[in-house]
UniProtKB/TrEMBL annotation:
<keyword id="KW-0472">Membrane</keyword>
<feature type="binding site">
    <location>
        <position position="165"/>
    </location>
    <ligand>
        <name>a 1,2-diacyl-sn-glycero-3-phospho-(1'-sn-glycerol)</name>
    </ligand>
</feature>
<comment type="pathway">
    <text>Protein modification; lipoprotein biosynthesis (diacylglyceryl transfer).</text>
</comment>
<keyword id="KW-0997">Cell inner membrane</keyword>
<feature type="transmembrane region" description="Helical">
    <location>
        <begin position="75"/>
        <end position="94"/>
    </location>
</feature>
<keyword id="KW-0808">Transferase</keyword>
<keyword id="KW-0812">Transmembrane</keyword>
<feature type="transmembrane region" description="Helical">
    <location>
        <begin position="114"/>
        <end position="134"/>
    </location>
</feature>
<feature type="transmembrane region" description="Helical">
    <location>
        <begin position="263"/>
        <end position="282"/>
    </location>
</feature>
<feature type="transmembrane region" description="Helical">
    <location>
        <begin position="146"/>
        <end position="164"/>
    </location>
</feature>
<comment type="similarity">
    <text>Belongs to the Lgt family.</text>
</comment>
<feature type="transmembrane region" description="Helical">
    <location>
        <begin position="44"/>
        <end position="63"/>
    </location>
</feature>
<dbReference type="InterPro" id="IPR001640">
    <property type="entry name" value="Lgt"/>
</dbReference>
<keyword id="KW-1003">Cell membrane</keyword>
<dbReference type="GO" id="GO:0042158">
    <property type="term" value="P:lipoprotein biosynthetic process"/>
</dbReference>
<dbReference type="GO" id="GO:0005886">
    <property type="term" value="C:plasma membrane"/>
</dbReference>
<keyword id="KW-1133">Transmembrane helix</keyword>
Amino acid sequence: MKKRRIILGVFCAVAAVALFFFLKVTFSGELIVDPIIVTIGPFSVRWYGVLIATGIVLAYILGRNFALKEGIKEDYLVEMVFWGIIAGIIGARLYYVAFNFDYYRDNPIEIFKIWNGGLAIHGAFFGGLFAGFLYTRLKKSAGIRFFQASDIFTAVLPLAQAIGRWGNFMNHEAYGAPTDLPWKMFVPRGYRVPGYTQYKYFHPTFLYESLWDIFVFIVLFNYMKKRKRYGEVTGLYMILYSMGRFVIEGLRLDSLYVGELRTAKLVSVILMIVGLIIFFHARYRGEEVRRVS
């Protein structure tokens, strides 16, 4: 065990140093990242898709451990995750399209080009929850409780989000307002938001959220191991993630809007309120967690 920790520590240290120098040259503009890894005929493999897939796989591996410890059979878990991913992708896209309807109404074919970006995490969250709700209600033989499933989902979701945000970086999107701070990020002219093409450096809001997601993941992953009742982690996720998203969203230039309100900020406030209700209800009136020995 000690040897594994040493190896892991060395790996993390090397990765951190490599990441630092990578960000140094990309944030300065010395290196411009190509969103496409490789093109084979009419098909392109993009960093965006690879990083989102990586986040999903790692989240599944960690979530699987929690599920097995709580007596969930792997066949049911795989089936539920499959439908959850499908619903999450559909929800993420529909959410984004709905709040950019004027554009997609005139360019309907673009709705299906999700590899170019345009997946809203709130839509993915709602889609995944909806799929989990339906599965636990319709698949009675699985014996999975909804809040049991949602706790596992939200305990590992921040890790997937943290990795997925780097897909936004590779696409040169999800950045913030112009800034001269030491950690300012260069954005190529062709990717700058209209009205800001004269600026070169912007807030790396993708990085802010990725770091916040890692913090939320660490908190929830550890809390998951000792939670007493189903629903506690779900509520905490809604509270913690929404707190960071609310603040960071205020810096972004590409926010979705409902009238004059930023959609993500409005949804974050709603999720914080709902999360508080779910957490305290679960804490004092929820069903006790059952773990297999």
